[in-house]
Amino acid sequence: MYLSSVVAGCFYCNVNISLGCLFFVSLLFLKIDKDGDNRVSPAELQSWMRHVQQESMDTETDRQWSEFRRKDPDFLAWDEYVQHTYKDNKGISV
Predict the structure, then answer these.
(1) What is the pLDDT of residues 6-42, one digit of tens each?
(2) What's the half-sphere exposure (Cβ side, CA atoms, 13 Å) at 12?
(3) Among 41, 47, 60, 82, which has the minimal tally of Cβ within 10 Å of its Cβ?
(4) Domain residue limits, the chain
């Protein structure tokens, strides 16, 4: 997929696209196109998708870790985990 094809496709299909959006798509395309050949190969797209997925998982892990009220900031005890995760459930024993 060429960048020029993406841009031309937007105009050909009469997609109402702002210049800001077009600029963002162009920047995104350049980030994905690692070898700089102005094309996005399936391998480059797959690599980008893995990168975004990993970044999302890291962000979510950091968010969840910060929610625990830990006695020790570098350690999470099992009873603290169970109490936080299953606080509304009855019958869970630590």
Answers:
(1) 555 555 555 566 777 778 888 889 999 999 998 999 9
(2) 6
(3) 60
(4) 1-40, 41-88
